[in-house]
Amino acid sequence: MAETVASGTYIPLQELAKHATLGNYPAPDAPNYAEILRCTHCGLCLDHCPTYRVLDIESDSPRGRIYQMRAVAEGRYEVNADFKEHMNVCLACRACETACPANVGFGQLVEAARWQAVASLPMSRRERLLRWLILRQLFPHPWRLRLAGSLLRLYQRLGLQSLVRRTGLLRLLSPTLAQIESLSPQFSNFFTPARDQFFLARGKARGTVSLFSGCIMPLAYSSTNQATLRVLQRNGFHVLLPAGQICCGAIHIHAGEHPTAQEMARRNIDAFLREETDAIIVNAAGCGVALKEYGELLANDAVYAQRAREFSAKVRDVSEFLVDKGFLPPRGEVRRRVTYQDPCHLAHGQKVRSQPRAILRAIPGIQLVEMRDPDRCCGSAGIYNVVHPDLSRQILNEKLDNVKATGAEMVVSANPGCILQIEAGCRNANLDIQVAHVADLLDQAYRAEKHVPPDP
User: Fold this and answer.
1) pTM for the full model?
2) What does the DSSP 8-state code read for residue 282?
3) How far apart are CA 237 and CA 203, in angstroms?
4) Burial level of 54, CB count in 10 A (0-12/13-18/19+)?
5) Residue 52 in contact with residue 66, Cβ under 8 Å?
6) Which residues of 240-257 are buried (b: 16+ CB within 10 A; e: fewer)?
7) Do domains 13-120 and 330-451 have the same CATH topology?
């Protein structure tokens, strides 16, 4: 049985950090108390926190949330509705981690705090239904996601989407559904492997990699998955698309649905470790963080802990992998004035910043113009733009102002959530600005090479 520190019991802080269940935390897997103690409450994180900048409330800053976590661990506070609200208003963008001189791992702390609230606090019937339907019955099941994507594609092709948006009918029926619908991208062909698929490298082979296709990417941005596949082939890598892979579980982790996320992680580990490859490539920043942290997610799993660490050690963002291995500079030209938006979970979560820029600068014709604060959150944050639409919109507006100031005709990013959010923001603001993934532009440059005269 897990050892518990009772409320009000005095134990020296250095000893308290060793206990499995702390103070007033009601469930195992509480926020890591040793990590909490590393926060010195210096405040250097404040200006980097999107919610603190908008709300100007200490409780909605990183150090304020950590203070609440510590108070619960020490029996001075409890996991209640206020605690839950302050944890859930956080975007988990991890900008505070970059700013923190003590390198506090805030992202995993807030995710653990959310799990405590989910495990112990009552939910409304509506919240229970939505969690059951979306997090447990939809995302863990690829064929159900494909069905949902097919219905949305039909809705768009029949012209119903245009009608709904012109009339504002959905806004009258359900503001939440209207918000979800306003964010939806255009669905075309899907990129969903039904069985193991193997694609040969072009030219001299340099190795074999596995490609993580994700859940939203193969439905909404299948062309980006195809572009990523071609880019890897063009750079000499055989590519395996393992069957049996599913959603990475990032949305579940952010929402405090740890048991579901853990089961999804086990399924992905089984799918990818069946075959030996050099790396597991991911082109979605949010997925990349989740996959790289499977070792922590399953740290207490006697069967999967070691396999999870092996899996996570092989995960690489596509730009990180290409720059590390050395990519072929494209000769085809792409004439665009672009600005780069750092996805939070790539810049802050994975510390990958220079690599996407190196790829963009290597493409002939690209004029890269840096925006102000490119690594500040765009307000997407998984489903944050649905559950906190007003806050999300304020954060997005700041991002769009910075984009407009560059005069760029295209925003480039490396995460579907950012792309979807900025696309919707530009559409709603009537901005004639395109949004694309780094892999899309590199692939476009490679494909344009057939128009380049051969070297003499």
Assistant:
1) 0.88
2) E
3) 9
4) middle
5) no
6) bbbeebbbbbbbbbbbbb
7) no
Burial of 419 per CB tally in 10 Å (0-12, 13-18, 19+):
buried
Q: Is the Cβ–Cβ distance between 328 and 232 less than 8 Å?
A: no
Superfamily grouping for domain 13-120: Alpha-helical ferredoxin (1.10.1060.10)
Fold of 197-323: Rossmann fold (3.40.50)
Closest of 118, 133, 121, 212 to residue 180, by C-alpha:
133
Contact call for residues 50 and 95 (beta carbons, < 8 A): yes
Could you report the per-residue pLDDT of 78-115, keeping only the tens digit for each?
999 999 999 999 999 999 999 999 999 999 999 999 99
Token reading at 36: 């909490």
Q: Which conformational region is residue 21 in: left (phi greater than 0), alpha (psi within -120 to 50 degrees), or beta?
A: beta
Annotated domain spans of the chain: 13-120, 125-183, 197-323, 330-451
Q: What is the pLDDT of residues 181-219, one digit of tens each?
A: 776 777 777 777 667 899 999 989 999 999 999 888 888
Cα–Cα distance measured from residue 19 to residue 178, given in angstroms and rounded to the nearest whole number:
46
> What sign results for the dihedral spanned by CA atoms 66, 69, 74, 76?
positive
pLDDT at residue 246 tops 50 = yes
Q: What is the pLDDT of residue 1?
A: 31
Count how many residues are written for the chain: 456
**Rounded distance, CA 50 to CA 418, Å?**
15
**What is the pairing mode between strands 410-413 and 434-437?**
parallel
Pull the structure tokens for residue 363: 């493409």
Q: What is the CATH number of domain 330-451?
A: 3.40.50
Distance separating alpha carbons of residues 258 and 20, to the nearest angstrom: 17
133 Cβ contact list (under 8 Å, min separation 6): none
Give the CA distances from residue 116 to residues 4, 22, 253, in Å, rounded to whole numbers and listed in that order.
15, 11, 12
Contacts of residue 5, defined as CB under 8 A and 6 or more positions apart, other chains included, come to 11, 16, 19, 21, 22, 23, 73, 75
